[in-house]
Specification:
144 residues, alpha+beta, 3-stranded antiparallel β-sheet, 3 strands, elongated
Length: 144
């Protein structure tokens, strides 16, 4: 955020969104369940997870400390639909936050993807599509 403030001219606007603290998607819950089972449980995941989620108060503090005047912050529901459970897994594998399977040996990742996709299929619609909903914090701020 400080780098955004550095490159923006005074009054320059920033719009960001971040997953809201305290929310897990069914995908995240299922990945945790799968990775807690053998053979995946033999490989420790990095402490603290891969993402940092914030609430409104924390986001406001972060923006203010970085040199922004907060114009608005709101929580929004976000729903993404995928053609299949496999596409949902692929989406997360390509996420800017990195793969939740990155700590596994490369040779074991396809098996983890397969188990996750198979178990996600139980949550898919009749046509095979699957949706993922999450709560996001959306903020607009201006550089002071």
């Amino acid at each position: 955020l400080r780098e955004f403030a550095r490159v923006l001219k005074p009054g320059g606007r920033l719009g960001i969104s971040s997953r809201a603290k305290g929310t897990l998607t069914r995908y995240e819950e299922l990945v945790s369940e799968v990775l807690a089972r053998p053979p995946f449980d033999a490989y420790a995941r990095p402490p603290g997870g891969l993402t940092h989620r914030v609430d409104e108060h924390e986001l406001r503090q972060l923006l203010t400390a970085a040199g922004f005047e907060v114009k608005s912050i709101e929580a929004r529901e976000s729903v993404r639909s995928f053609a299949s459970p496999e596409m949902l897994v692929r989406y997360h594998e390509a996420s800017s936050f990195g793969s939740r399977l990155a700590h596994l040996p490369v040779a074991l990742r396809p098996a983890a993807r397969e188990v996750i996709s198979r178990e996600l299929a139980a949550h898919a619609a009749a046509d095979g599509t699957i949706s993922q909903s999450s709560r996001r914090m959306v903020a607009i701020a201006a550089r002071r």
